[in-house]
């Protein structure tokens, strides 16, 4: 697990800068957009994970609820503050990295599971955006709430048990890097990245 952390630290920093949470959680429309992008990515990724019954059994199916949380958050947000005008985004294609082996898949899970760790920090620091009813549309960023630390520990233990050999660890790190990059590109497309 420390190989995953050290092998992706630069990309975690980059994704934080790219998402610019102060702005992304700063107003309703940016937050709506962020939730939409997250929801699409998590839905596709969870579909891939769900195909591997062994992985679902080992890690627990409760880890595959996040796209549902995101959909519910979006519904609550749209009910509280309906979309004004036509804000449809152009039809872009979402392509996830390939996950040819279980080690690759676990590398991807590391990234999307790890995102629950920063959520509460983010909410405390920047959000939720003003204009939302108390507690609405923040389920995803609450992660596993009080169980977040415990869920992460359990994830790490299972990941370590299943990804052991050197070549497997290398595959998981490669895949985690590819997932960080593809997630960052999807959530904040290049044309929206401006120099800071
Ligand atoms: C946008 C702003 C973000 C902030 C402020 C943030 C913050 C954090 C914090 C504080 C931790 C450490 C938590 C702890 O050790 O208890 C963490 C860990 C982590 N975050 Fe983020 N995060 C952000 C975005 C993301 C995103 C978008 C992803 C993935 C898509 C991500 C993936 C991870 C992973 C994999 C870890 C675990 C690292 C490890 O211990 O191995 N983070 N984040």
From TrEMBL:
Gene Ontology biological process terms from the UniProt entry: heme oxidation
Molecular function in Gene Ontology: heme oxygenase (decyclizing) activity
Pfam families according to UniProt: Heme_oxygenase
Superkingdom of the source species: Bacteria
The protein's name: Heme oxygenase
Organism: Stratiformator vulcanicus
């Amino acid at each position: 697990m420390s190989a995953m952390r050290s092998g992706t630290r630069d990309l975690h920093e980059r994704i934080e800068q790219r998402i610019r949470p102060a702005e992304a959680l700063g107003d309703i429309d940016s937050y709506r957009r962020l939730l939409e992008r997250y929801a699409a990515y998590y839905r596709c990724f969870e579909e891939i994970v769900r195909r591997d019954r062994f992985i679902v059994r080992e890690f627990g199916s409760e880890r595959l609820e996040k796209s549902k949380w995101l959909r519910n958050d979006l519904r609550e947000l749209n009910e509280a503050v309906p979309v004004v005008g036509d804000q449809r985004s152009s039809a872009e294609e979402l392509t996830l990295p390939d996950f040819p082996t279980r080690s690759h898949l676990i590398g991807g899970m590391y990234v999307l599971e790890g995102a629950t760790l920063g959520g509460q920090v983010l909410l405390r620091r920047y959000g939720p955006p003003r204009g939302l009813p108390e507690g609405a549309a923040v389920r995803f960023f609450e992660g596993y709430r009080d169980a977040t630390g415990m869920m992460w520990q359990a994830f790490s233990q299972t990941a370590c048990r299943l990804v052991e050999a050197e070549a497997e660890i290398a595959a998981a790190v490669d895949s985690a890097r590819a997932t960080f990059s593809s997630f960052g590109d999807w959530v904040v497309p290049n044309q929206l990245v401006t120099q800071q």
